[in-house]
Design goal:
By secondary structure, the chain is an alpha/beta fold. Helix content is 35%, strand content 22%. The chain is built from twelve helices and 22 strands. It has a seven-stranded mixed sheet. Strands 17, 18, 19, 20, 21 and 22 form a six-stranded parallel sheet that branches. A five-stranded mixed sheet has the order 12-13-14-15-16, with no helix packed on it. Bound molecules: MU-OXO-diiron. MU-OXO-diiron binds next to α2.
């Protein structure tokens, strides 16, 4: 239990071991934290809990610091079990304690735990007085679940933002100014790219709505990673930037290869891009050997994406198919793309990749480039020229 402001405590769990999240869908190279907060006033309120495997530890730890029966209310900002997992164990000790959440929170908490707890549904603007301190609730539907909400503690100027503004970063240093800044922002952008990209329009709207409240913010306390106490609005500004079709001067090439033919095309295309524009960053990833969430982060930072696969069984390699499915759901905006690939006799891969890229919302720059078998000198030259053309198109685009 660590006091972060007068009578406001962090009571969460640092998970140094976690390497995969959402099943195996999200890599967490640097672990994570599940942040829970306790506010003591005339009433004692608990905001969120921790992931279920740490439930017993969490409840025992809470009980050491504050008698569980002294918890007057629980605020469940989001039902996903990394935050509500320990709730069931806690509620066994305090079954009648009111649980404040959104209407959708009631549905999803019931859906997870099948319990009819003493739910108190709240809407944006509803308040909960704890004595001198008061919580105001702000619904944040689809950031990133229908039930998500923020809570603002007026007397201490703290925004409890749940998943928003968080990162998967385990640290014993609780605050943003005490951790490595490169690591911190890498985890922030990865989190945004992989989880929040599809909801960017809502992010922008919610930020405008919150800024419109004109309330002071001394601290932003997300439910993962460090607390933003030094210039807390810097992460809000970053979200604002990321939510508006974010692009750096980068082109990313993602491929898989069987006997290096498609890899040779990828490298020739990269050579062409660099020769036409030496300022653009070009990164290549063999998707079957790369961390897919890191690659998505690179795509998020890119103006252009090139995807390649050889043809196999009239289709594409499974790692490329998985990657196309992953980006389809993320709904990237204002990014350009093209396909490439080798083949022996039928050659469907480029058309299939084109379709996948279009389904994912990318603007196709070209119909793509194919080469038979192992590309010869002429094919490699054509690929270099293709790369040059791509670089020029991206350079000249209105989104430059
Ligand atoms: Fe949406 Fe951290 O759970």
């Amino acid at each position: 239990m660590i006091e972060i402001k007068k009578n406001v405590y962090w009571v969460g769990k640092v998970d140094w071991e976690l390497r995969k999240f959402h099943g195996d869908e999200y890599s967490t190279h640097r672990g994570t934290t599940y942040n829970s907060y306790l506010i003591r006033d005339k009433k004692t309120a608990l905001i969120d809990t921790v992931w279920r495997p740490y439930g017993t530890e969490f409840v025992e730890n809470l009980d050491k610091h504050v008698s569980l029966k002294d918890i007057d209310c629980v605020v469940a900002q989001h039902a996903e079990i990394d935050h509500s997992g320990a709730l069931a164990e806690l509620m066994e000790h305090i079954p009648d304690t009111p649980v404040y959440c959104t209407n959708n929170g009631v549905k999803s908490l019931k859906g997870h735990f099948h319990k009819d707890w003493n739910f108190v549904p709240v809407k944006t603007g509803d308040t909960l007085s704890l004595g001198k301190k008061e919580l105001t609730f702000i619904e944040a539907p689809m950031l990133h679940w229908p039930d998500s909400m923020f809570s603002y503690l007026s007397s201490e100027n703290i925004l409890f933002s749940n998943d928003a503004f968080g990162q998967h970063l385990a640290s014993e240093s609780l605050y943003n100014d005490l951790v490595d800044q490169a690591e911190l922002f890498q985890e922030c952008i990865k989190y945004y790219a992989n989880i929040l990209t599809p909801f960017s329009a809502l992010v922008e709207k919610k930020i405008d709505e919150f800024k419109g409240l004109n309330v002071p913010v001394d601290m932003i306390c997300p439910s993962h990673g460090v607390i933003w106490r030094n210039d807390p609005l810097q992460i809000v500004d970053k979200y604002s930037e990321w939510s508006k079709g974010f692009r750096e001067n980068q082109i990313t090439i993602v491929y898989d290869t069987m006997w290096n033919g498609t890899r040779n095309l990828a490298e020739a295309i990269a050579q062409g891009i660099k020769s036409a524009d030496d300022k653009v960053t070009v990164k290549l990833f063999n998707i079957s050997h790369s961390d897919k969430n890191d690659v998505v982060t690179e795509v998020f930072k890119s103006k252009g994406l090139l995807v390649g696969s050889p043809t196999i069984n009239r289709g594409i390699l499974s790692a490329v198919a998985g990657f196309l499915e992953q980006i389809r759901g993320l709904k990237f905006k204002e990014k350009k793309a093209a396909a490439f690939g080798t083949y022996g006799w039928s050659g469907e891969s480029v058309d299939m990749i084109n379709k996948g890229l279009e389904d994912a919302g990318f603007e196709l720059m070209e119909s793509g480039i194919k080469s038979t078998w192992n590309p010869d000198e002429e094919s490699l030259k054509k690929s270099i020229d293709f790369g040059k053309k791509i670089a020029q198109k991206i350079k000249n685009s209105k989104h430059q």
